[in-house]
């Protein structure tokens, strides 16, 4: 499944990184502790986090994540969105909480 498919199916808002919407999503990782994410996340994961600072894009780039999903309509720092655009990492925003996002992604087969 591609990031674009998730955006369309779940009505997520694309905040940045539109050039990366055709990235393949092969799993999901949910965590807010960056060091833990770096040691446990996997390539092509969609990453759900409440963190909104630019370091999340650095981690997503390093691990080759498909996208970053921000739950509960949390506002994302402008510097983070700029970095996401530079790295072509889609940053998506949802009204749902992290648990609800996981349920919906599971229903989609991710």
UniProtKB/TrEMBL annotation:
<feature type="domain" description="DRTGG">
    <location>
        <begin position="5"/>
        <end position="107"/>
    </location>
</feature>
<protein>
    <recommendedName>
        <fullName>DRTGG domain-containing protein</fullName>
    </recommendedName>
</protein>
<dbReference type="Pfam" id="PF07085">
    <property type="entry name" value="DRTGG"/>
</dbReference>
<dbReference type="InterPro" id="IPR028979">
    <property type="entry name" value="Ser_kin/Pase_Hpr-like_N_sf"/>
</dbReference>
<dbReference type="InterPro" id="IPR010766">
    <property type="entry name" value="DRTGG"/>
</dbReference>
């Amino acid at each position: 499944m591609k990031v674009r498919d998730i955006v369309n199916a779940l009505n997520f808002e694309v905040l940045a990184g539109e050039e990366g919407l055709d990235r393949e999503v092969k799993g999901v990782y949910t965590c807010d502790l960056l060091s833990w994410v770096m040691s446990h996340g996997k390539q092509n994961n969609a990453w759900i986090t409440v963190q909104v600072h630019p370091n999340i894009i650095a981690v997503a780039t390093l691990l080759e994540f498909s996208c970053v999903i921000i739950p509960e309509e949390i506002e994302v720092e402008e510097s983070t969105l700029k970095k996401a655009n530079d790295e072509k990492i889609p940053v998506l925003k949802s009204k749902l909480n992290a648990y609800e996002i996981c349920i919906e992604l599971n229903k989609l087969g991710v």
